[in-house]
Amino acid sequence: KRNEPAYIPLVVEKLAAILGCTKEEMAGITSANAARAFGI
Q1: How far from the centroid of its chain's Cα atoms is residue 39's Cα?
Q2: In three state form, how does the secondary structure of the chain look?
Q3: What is the pLDDT of residues 15-35, one digit of tens each?
């Protein structure tokens, strides 16, 4: 399948299940990673 922004919720849900956390926790993790990566 082609990678599209529409798949983001599905990816977040799957990663949360794999890592044993909530979708909200995943949002915090990805936001922190982006801030660290871009120095913001």
Answers
A1: 18
A2: CCCCHHHHHHHHHHHHHHHCCCHHHHHHHHHHHHHHHHCC
A3: 999 999 999 999 999 999 999
Instruction: Give buried/exposed letters for 1-17 (b at 16+ CB in 10 A, else e).
Output: eeeeeeeeeeebeeebe
Residue 8 exposure: Cα atoms within 13 Å on the Cβ side: 5
pTM for the full predicted model: 0.70
Domains identified in the chain, total number = 1
Name the residue range of residue 24's domain.
5-38
